[in-house]
């Protein structure tokens, strides 16, 4: 049955609309086809990547290229590519799950994979002309050619539209000449195609070009040496220099000055895929850590029996679970919106573009949350391994180094935090998400007398859902107050934006975990989900804490006197449990399950 418009939340609407658990997609909903894909990718990871970990760490760039080619042979590079261009044309959920399960062996491969399939290929499938797609996409989908994405320059990182690379039209109007320097280009060492962003004359915005790169006939393109990096050591990262590189005019991607839009939209897709790429790493880190903790004895006791280690196991499992819940929830929203737009007559290309753009807020939220969770997991993984964790001989050390980049590329986490709130405020201004109405209601509630009724919280998650609702009110109170105070100058108040983003992120992650568990409890029985229930409650508990802290910091910074007092009272009310969960018990339950299974098992 076709999904109806009314059934699908718009991007950002999770904040003001209640979602029924039946309406979220969870990893337990994978179809047979998706499950087969997942197993095939896991098997590939186990066979082609994991056993060669040492070679990746020793900067064996040729191995990365070789495994990429094998991934191409298996069809993994073409999951998201429409069948008309030699791809499998699978849905967005399948694209995301491929990124998830192919990425845990080493960050080197996952970066090469992400750069090629995401930012290296997607700009052409999303913005290319029919001729461009026919010419290039089949080669990229099969792995005959690899793609790279050249946006960053020495002077233009986060401020991506400020690049100095130029494209100059020839006198006969047939070609452009590209000159400039790009930096930190993933896959540069073995790519045959580059998406290059350059400025034409004094245009406000940059323009995208498809540039072929043949080492035998380099057309003015030279590469810097491989960068020596903290992590992802066998991912090829080089500077790329363009010296009078001539490209035909029809290599322009979309229109003149459209490059910034292309760059941003490619990054939206890249962000949710990057979040996915940090999921299986977390599962693997936890499984490896619990395995070690069960074996390692100190004081004649397996260290996994110590409360101090159980905390780590429980928190690692909980974050991974919440990350999975939120990533697949958003992935399916995107897939459904694409289907909806196609049903309404959009081409697949338009539908995909708009579908992903719609959920840009969620993509930023996921990128930040999951990249920080994997870093935390790797850090705790090292701690569980003790001194051995610090050794190159154990996998924790490289996992920690590899995880670090995820907070930097695809837009730094600072930029993504500010973007998530900025985009939401913009959507509200355009009337796409009604924040004003709900924010006014919160204002009225703040001035009213609170109810002293004792609610019945006997049903599963009834209190947690009330808490989520109250956390949403906290966001509306804080962000609404800040918008009122600073108006269009809000973007100058970065600390406030970042605090608001943290509130937004915690709401989305906590709600996603709860909805997933509630859905599964309803269909598989509550008993079967007791540990997942514990994880959902534990995640929420931390979310409430973070939100209280960030809310307080924000209110104090922009409100004064009576207004400040009223908001702080509201904050107290919105972050107060009727019955506090015993988080020590919750952690013990989660840790015991992980210990017994000797792996991440959810
Ligand atoms: C291993 C690796 C691979 C990469 N691969 C690619 C690739 O394939 N293609 C490509 O084009 N690029 C790539 N990049 C570049 C990457 O996207 C940039 O490094 C990133 O966007 C940040 O830019 P920057 O390094 O210039 O840092 P800067 O922009 O200089 O940022 C430095 C710090 O300042 C903060 N900051 C910057 N602006 C603001 C602001 N307005 N407000 C608040 N804080 C701000 C940032 O958050 C960061 O903490 C790669 C980078 C690395 C390290």
UniProtKB/TrEMBL annotation:
Cofactor: FAD
Record-annotated Acyl-CoA dehydrogenase/oxidase C-terminal domain positions: 257-419
Domain of life the protein comes from: Bacteria
Keyword Disulfide bond: no
Acyl-CoA dehydrogenase-like C-terminal domain mapped to chain residues: 470-573
Domain Acyl-CoA dehydrogenase/oxidase N-terminal: 31-144
Gene Ontology molecular functions: oxidoreductase activity
EC number: 1.-.-.-
InterPro entries in alphabetical order: Acyl-CoA-dh-like_C, Acyl-CoA_DH_CS, Acyl-CoA_Oxase/DH_mid-dom, Acyl-CoA_Oxase/DH_mid-dom_sf, AcylCo_DH-like_C, AcylCo_DH/oxidase_C, AcylCoA_DH/ox_N, AcylCoA_DH/ox_N_sf
Domain Acyl-CoA oxidase/dehydrogenase middle: start-end pairs: 148-244
Keyword tRNA processing in record: no
Alphabetized UniProt keyword annotations: FAD, Flavoprotein, Oxidoreductase
Stored Pfam families: Acyl-CoA-dh_C, Acyl-CoA_dh_1, Acyl-CoA_dh_M, Acyl-CoA_dh_N
Family listed: Belongs to the acyl-CoA dehydrogenase family.
Record's protein name: Acyl-CoA dehydrogenase family protein
Source species: Algibacter miyuki
